[in-house]
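An example makes the point: we print one protein in full, the chain in one-letter code, the fold tokenised, without further comment:
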Amino acid sequence: MIHNLPQTPVFKDERPDSAISEFALRVVLEFDGWDLHVLGTATIIAGNLAITARHVLESVFRKFGRKQDANKHLEIDACAIRLYQVFPGPEYRVWEVRSAWVCPTTDIAILHLAKWRTTRPEETIDWKSPRLRVLPPPIGQKVVAFGYRESKVSVTEDAAGVHHIEVNDRPTVSIGEVKQIYPAGRDRVILPFPCYEIEARFDPGMSGGMVIDENGALCGLICASLQTSDPIAPPVSYVATLWPMLMTVISANRGDRYPKNVNYPMIDLARDGLISVVDIEHLNFPPFDAPYTP
């Protein structure tokens, strides 16, 4: 339970190595020649799986194209997409996005990760995953959003030819109240997917960041914010509801107890206890008795 949340919207910076940075990662686009750009924020939900806003990935697809392999994984040839994870110290872990699946009915993309670099090469990874609340919190409840804004990356090379990457940004918490819920979308063009409106500020770079409810469960992803020139107008932003992603078909391997390289809907991860969904009993999804092939 998160206690003593403020009564009015709050928008404040956090330490770069705060506890939340273990779950919230920076999405970085990397080209040859050490040309790096921060795209947005991603959230770890299970071992080797993270989610981000679909529009974060689609900005890359529009500019650099994409292709699908035989398993319908999305692939990008021109660059690499990596997630940067920061721990106290600071220490770092960098994940490479090996595959991505975009959810057809919402602003969410699922990322399959492989460890690329770390400052702790001998470590054994103890995955910590948040509980998921896939339905929106009720109107009037406070939520806490987190993402990285004003991000910049610089790369230096020392005398031995070793490159050092420095990421400078503003890890930001935004707290506000749920004002409206749109079970089927707010409109047909901008937000045509299940989402909800909160009185809170989101800035560029925070897209894909985690939103948690008063009980500490992940209850959505940062997806949009309305801009206004009125300095006294309350902030208005939108959060993508999580339940549509459970119907997305993926093929990330789940371990030795499961068949490899098969397609299955994400809800199977919840049914098998690989992700924790606190309100799954309220969902009315059809059963899947066999691997699904679209």
